[in-house]
Amino acid sequence: MTKLARKARPTVVRERMKLTHLKLGLGRRTACDVLFLRSGQVTELEPHLAPHRYVDLEYGSRRVIVHPVFLFFLLVNLFKYSTQRAFLKTYVQFYRTTSVISYDNIPGAWDWADVLEWPMICVQHGMRQMEEENFGSAPTTNVVFLSWGKLQIEDYRLGRTPRLPNSSHERTPKLTIPIGSLRDSMYRGLKYPGKEKLGRLCLISQFKGLDGHGLTLPTERQRNIDLLIEHLGRYVERRDLELVIALYSDRPEALKQEIEWYRGKFGSRCTFNDPSVEFATYKTTDDCEMSFGVHTSVLWEIFGRSRKMLACNYTGDQVFDFPIDGPWFLKSGTYEEFERRVDDLRAMSSDDYRSLVGDKARYLISYSDELPTHMAIGALISQQVAERD
Q: pTM for the full model?
C-alpha cells in the first residue's frame, strides 16, 4: 500500500425516500469507487475514504433505486442469491464500485462477500469476545481484514474465533493486515501532550445503566467491576490519592445516573472528566499516572501507547483476560495482591515500563507513524481501484 498523496473529502451519492418497508432512491446511475456498508453507531469511516467517491448502504436496508438497470440487476440477483447478497451485488453492479468496506460487527457480512469480485475490506471496530473452544480450520471468505494488531493473525492461526454476532465467527479472511485502532489513530494525530500527574489515577468507567449494577443478579462482568472498584477505593484512600472517573455515558439522564452511582461507591474521593470534550477518555488517561479497567478496548489502546495500566479479571472467565501477560494484568487476587501490584507499577520508571512493554505494544495495536490507521484504510482502497484501472 502507498500513502495517499492528498487529503480530500469523499463525494457521496445519497438520494432516497422512504416508502413502507422499502427505501426508494430516485437518481441517476453514477460510477463510484467504494460501497460503504454501514453498521450502526461506530467511529465514522467516511472521512477516511477520501479522495474516493462512495455510495452508502445501511446494514439490513432494502433500499431500491428506481432505475431500470438497478431493477434488472436486483431481479436477477434475487433469483440467484439470498436477499442481503442480492442487494450487495446489485449496488456494486449498479454503481460500478470496486471496493466494499465495512466494520466487522455486521452479522453474516463475511458470507455475503462471496458475491464480490474484489475482497471486502473489513475494519476491526472493537474488542472481539473469543469463543472458549478453538474451531481449527474455518472456511476462508473473500475478505481482507484490517485488524488492530498481530494478535488477530495469531487467533486465526490457532483456530480461535470471535463469538456471535461478530461477522468473522467461524470464518477466516483471505488476508489479515494489522493497522491499529482507527479511533486511537485519530487521537494520536492530535499529538495531545498529556498532563500526567503523579498521584492521579484513572478508572475507565464501564457503566451501561443501572441494570446489573446492584439492582439485578450480578453478572461475572459486574462482579469483576465491583471488585475492582472496591480495591481501587481502598487503595486511593490509604495512599491519599486523586481518582478521576473517565465517564462512559453520552446522554444527560444516563450521565446523571452514572455520576450518582460512582458517588455512592467513592463519595467525595473521586472527580469526573467532561465526556463532551473530544477524545475525553483518551485525554484523561494520558493526564493520569495510571489507568484501571476490566475488559475494555481503551486499556488495549493505552497499552499500545505504552502507558501504565492495570487490567483486572477476578472471576477467572477467559473473556475478561488481557491478551498479554505481564505486570499490567492481574488475574484473581486479594486486595493485598492488588495493592502490591499497583505499588510496583507506580514505582517503576516510565522508561523501564516502556522497555518492558517493548514490541508487545504493536503486537496488540499495530499503529505506524509512517502510515497511520486512517491513511492505511484509504491506501488499501486506492490499491484496489488502481488494480481495477
A: 0.89
